[in-house]
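Give me the fold.
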Amino acid sequence: MRSTVFPVTTCLLVLLLFSLHLTVRSQSLVINEIMASNAYTIADEDGDYEDWIELYNNGSEAVDLEGYGLSDDYANPFRWIFPAVTIEPGQYMLVWASGKDRRPAEGELTGGLVRELYTGIPGWSVDDLINHESYPDHPSSRNIVRHLFEAPINIGDHYGQRIMGWIKAPITGLYTFWISSDDNGRLYLSTSEDPEDAVMIAHVPGWTNPRQWNKYSQQQSTSIMLQAGQYYFVKALMKEHEGGDNLAVGWQLPGGTLQRPIPGAHLYNDQGEMHTNFSISSAGEEVFITNPSGVMIDEIVPTAIPTDISYGRSPDGTGNLFFFADPTPGESNTSQTFSEILDPPEFSAPGGFYHTAFDLTITHPDPEATIIYTIDGSEPDVDNLSGTTYYYKNSYPQNPSNPPGPFLTNTFDSHLYTGP
């Protein structure tokens, strides 16, 4: 009898300890920030401004999220289920609540190339891009290029971009590549899936018109042997100074078929973003995460959240919930917090142009509310009630011999409303 009881007790103890370990690890996982109405805060890989949910691992161990549920319905905790992805200690993970229902597993290749834009960088050379402090880890924006190996044309000045991912050869044989760009462009290709093996195979030393493939001999690569079904890492860099701007990559398949630009059917990336099969109501609804055992790990109760305002924890992972006028998706919640969102003030007269003077009364349903206003077009600021002085010029010399224009001064002020 003892030999029978002992293994059962041991098994129960092991199961209990495993369950406790799983619970402790799961409790380090929190919903750190959400946005229920996204008009212009951040775009997904399709360029769409969707709702989003930010998770944060506040613990000291990685958490495998496969089988966890994310939902906006208490009656259906596994409305959307995580694929095989891991959130590391201290990591922020963004999940789009878009209704698109995408579950790329960690490292899984999906269609399209990653396009990263780096703005505010003068100069025409690719060196100006790669030597800038924002490159490569801090792009201004990121999206997925799905249709063709080509960037949008004539979008602005003083920027650089990187388009990268993997290209899959449809047949075995010799391939030739081309790049066109304005201004300087460079094309890199790896001999394997490994990005570390990438070497430059073609470049634009000056600039070209869109899809102008033969302006410079350097735009064309030598013949390169590729194997059918093999993935090869590919990367195109481009730097725009001023004027027109473009970037495209083409190839010639074995047998002579030209595809310029390269169709999206051959292009892949490993940065597919997760999208739930539901969106969040800005009027307020629950958002919660459940572990595979059916235990709710964390939740945000129904809360009305205005457009482009987020709602989350401060400090990260452990703090109370606040509203953020400056959301921080995928980053620490360090911006100013607000405990509530007030209704807008009410004006005694509608907005518009008036030709005669009148008394304007401003009221608010909350008698404790403080109303700050301006009459110079500046943003009302409670910290600028004493005004700010600035200096400027409106006259500049046309020729080097002309005298410089004088410095002028002006102020902008905020005012505390006390009555008409």
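Confidence is low (pLDDT under 50) at residues 1-25.
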